[in-house]
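quick q for whoever's on today - can somebody do inverse folding on this one?? i tried earlier but teh output was garbage lol. tokens:
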């Protein structure tokens, strides 16, 4: 503790006073003090409050909260998109199976049509109605 009452860690104030030996002043209030004037105070822990840093910490915490909310929102959207994608894939698979069924039925129909006497496959290609069975 300096004679003016300002508190500093012993190593910090010792370094300050040695670096500024011409002035021998308190870094805070500029009152005169010398190294021999420093009173040692023993404490288990000293905490220095920096209001600017506290503001910055609060601001960063608020930003973190916003990012966490956005991350949560994106996660919900991702789950929804995955569900929608699965539904679309299932529907696509159904359509593919139906297309396969229709193609097989068309192939069977064409084969049967070719077997009918006097009905060449050319009739279908010309857009004419198939002969009655």
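ok took a stab at it. sequence:
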């Amino acid at each position: 503790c300096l004679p003016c009452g300002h508190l500093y860690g012993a190593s910090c104030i010792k370094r300050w006073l040695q670096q500024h030996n011409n002035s021998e002043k308190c870094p805070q209030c500029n009152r005169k003090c010398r190294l021999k004037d420093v009173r040692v105070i023993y404490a288990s822990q000293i905490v220095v409050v920096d209001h600017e840093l506290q503001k910055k910490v609060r601001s960063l915490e608020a930003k973190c909260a916003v990012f966490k909310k956005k991350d949560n929102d994106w996660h919900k959207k991702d789950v929804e998109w995955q569900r929608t994608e699965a539904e679309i894939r299932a529907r696509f698979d159904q359509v593919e199976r139906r297309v396969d069924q229709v193609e097989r039925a068309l192939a069977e129909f064409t084969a049967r049509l070719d077997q009918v006497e006097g009905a060449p496959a050319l009739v279908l290609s010309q857009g004419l109605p198939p002969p009655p069975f």
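fwiw Residues 64 and 94 are 45 Å apart (CA to CA). also The chain is about 60% helix and 0% strand. so keep that in mind when u check it
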